[in-house]
Design brief:
A seven-stranded mixed beta sheet has the order 1-7-6-2-5-3-4, with helices on both faces. The chain has 271 residues and is an alpha/beta fold. It has one domain: Glycerol-3-phosphate (1)-acyltransferase. The chain has eleven helices and seven strands. The chain is globular and about 50 Å long.
């Protein structure tokens, strides 16, 4: 589909959020810069991507998970929103080609480098770590990464939070673009970028902390949901392992003997 569907849905969503919430959006001009870049955001709730779409002027091509594309309506809707699926059970070269093509065309690609919804101490905002797959993707495409902190999505956990005039608070803050250093070996440059991104996420959160009150987790998971989560613990624990393997295969000069690559290959094989 064209960008018309994306922009129509974004316009409707902005109306809903305008009536029901009280957002704080900081440094929006950083995400409005021309040219290709990767937008990397923390992920604390299922509505984070909607909040970022509301806040960003540019159209974002999201990397999503293939599981969301297995039913007809979600597949139609997500495709219309210019998202594309990542199969976490294998090295997904097709997704890598799609990512590289969109970045070559000067588009913005959105990714959650935590690999899934993270809450409490697991969140990068509270000391957790991000996966280095986003840095390998930046290295492959030769584009910068803009960090984005989204806070308060958990406040939309209950239906009343969406009602008009509820003034539910949330915030999105965009950081300065971060580029890989060319004066370092490739692996070291990625390690440095991971640290820079993690520091940037926490600094951005500090800027909006006073606007968004403490929130509860998104929902109470049922025992059945917990069983499903435990059954997929391999993917949750190392969700980007196949993604990293695919990047390594596309990335010239990146040795497959690197420890993270060996872990990726093991994870892919076990999947």
């Amino acid at each position: 589909m064209s960008e018309a569907f994306y922009k129509t849905v974004r316009g409707i969503g902005r109306g809903v959020f305008h009536l029901a919430s009280r957002p704080m959006i900081l440094h929006a001009e950083r995400a409005g810069r021309p040219g290709a870049f990767i937008l990397a955001a923390n992920h604390a709730s299922p509505v984070d991507s909607a909040l970022i779409i509301h806040a960003a002027a540019r159209v974002i091509h999201w990397i999503s998970i293939v599981e969301l594309f297995r039913r007809p309506f979600p597949r139609w809707f997500l495709s219309g929103m210019l998202a594309f699926p990542l199969d976490r059970s294998r090295a997904d070269a097709a997704t890598m080609r799609a990512v590289a093509r969109r970045l070559r065309d000067g588009e913005v690609v959105g990714i959650f480098p935590e690999g899934g919804v993270r809450r409490s101490g697991d969140s990068v905002l509270r000391g957790g770590r991000i996966d280095d797959g986003v840095c390998k993707l930046a290295q492959l495409a030769g584009v910068p990464v803009i960090p984005c902190a989204v806070v308060g999505g958990e406040n939309f956990a209950s239906f009343p939070s969406w009602l008009p005039l509820r003034r539910t608070r949330w915030a999105v803050a965009f950081g300065e673009p971060i580029a890989l250093r060319n004066d370092l070996p490739r692996a070291e440059a990625r390690r440095v970028m991971v640290e820079q991104l993690q520091d940037a996420f926490r600094a951005l959160q500090a800027e909006v902390r006073d606007h968004v009150p403490p929130s509860r987790p998104w929902s109470r998971t049922s025992s059945r949901s917990n069983e499903r989560n435990r059954a997929s613990s391999t993917l949750v624990e190392r969700p980007f392992a196949p993604f990293r393997t695919a990047v390594v295969e596309w990335l010239p000069g990146c040795s497959t003997s690197h420890p993270s690559t060996r872990a990726s290959s093991t994870s892919s094989a076990s999947s």
